[in-house]
Design brief:
alpha+beta; 5-stranded mixed β-sheet; two-stranded antiparallel sheet; 8 helices; 7 strands; elongated; binds iron/sulfur cluster; binds FE2/S2 (inorganic) cluster
């Protein structure tokens, strides 16, 4: 018997950063194991909308197709999540797909997430080593520290936590949970801790950690289950201790 099952998609599109967004619907033949990215690939192979009108392929970012590269984040049925792991059979139809709302749209579902990388630079989210000569082996991390650090190292810079955060907006300038998670990670590393003071100082001013309202949306959407609220409490404590220490050393 022929399989006539179809998949309905409602996609918010935008031709360029300045143009007005519009919605376009697609009805695709259902296949087993489909995910949102495979739907986009089917549309690219036959770019015809639900009204039977020829259209263009959807623009989006993706790379690994296994929830590792962090590039395919978008709003799917209203939730910030990764398109490559969004299985069609588990989604209510029509599946509504929109670009992230807190980041400038480049085209269709592709957005510019440079702000995260600027924030990571602000807090020096790296281990400071000079790679121009052999430094020998670094300090050892105890298995306990490794265990604590590992969850934070799983961040894929997808920005889902920032999209879902009510405090991440232009008026607060809040750095967002991902950046705070990386501060927690690099402050835990014996060599990374050399920049701890500067990292914490970067989280003290406008847009710093005090902007967090502790709504916990971030931890709910993080595809890598990173303990973001724990990071926010731990780093908040570190920031406060440093601020008090600075006050008394004046
Ligand atoms: S706890 Fe709430 S306010 Fe704080 S970073 Fe997470 S979502 Fe944003
Ligand atoms: S903390 Fe989680 S949600 Fe935020 S960028 Fe990293 S992986 Fe994505
Ligand atoms: S394509 Fe890499 S996370 Fe989805």
């Amino acid at each position: 018997m022929a399989n006539n099952k179809t998949v309905l998609l409602k996609i918010k599109r935008q031709n360029d950063p300045e143009s007005t967004p519009y919605w376009e619907e697609f009805e695709l033949p259902w296949k087993p194991g489909m995910n949102v990215i495979s739907c986009f690939m089917d549309i690219a192979a036959n770019p015809v909308n639900r009204q039977g009108k020829a259209t263009t392929a959807i623009t989006y970012d993706s790379n690994c197709l296994e929830e590792v590269c962090g590039s395919c984040a978008m709003r799917i049925n209203g939730k910030a999540r990764m398109a490559c792991s969004a299985l069609v059979d588990q989604l209510k139809q029509p599946i509504t797909i929109e670009p992230f709302s807190k980041f400038p749209v480049v085209r269709d579902l592709a957005v510019d997430r440079q702000v995260l990388f600027e924030n990571l630079k602000k807090v020096k989210a790296w281990v400071p080593i000079d790679g121009s000569y052999d430094l020998g082996s670094g300090p050892k991390l105890s298995p306990e520290t490794q265990e604590q650090a590992y969850p934070y190292s799983r961040c894929i810079s997808c920005t889902c936590c920032m999209e879902a955060c009510p405090q991440f907006n232009q008026s607060t300038g809040f750095v967002g949970a991902a950046t705070i998670g990386q501060v927690r990670l690099f402050n835990m590393h014996p060599t990374g801790a050399m920049l701890k003071r500067e990292r914490l100082a970067a989280l003290m001013g406008d847009g710093g950690i005090h902007e967090c309202g502790y709504a916990q949306n971030c931890v709910e959407v993080c595809p890598k289950d990173i303990p973001l609220t724990r990071a926010i409490s731990d780093v908040g404590r570190q920031v406060m201790l440093q601020a008090i220490g600075d006050l008394f050393s004046k």
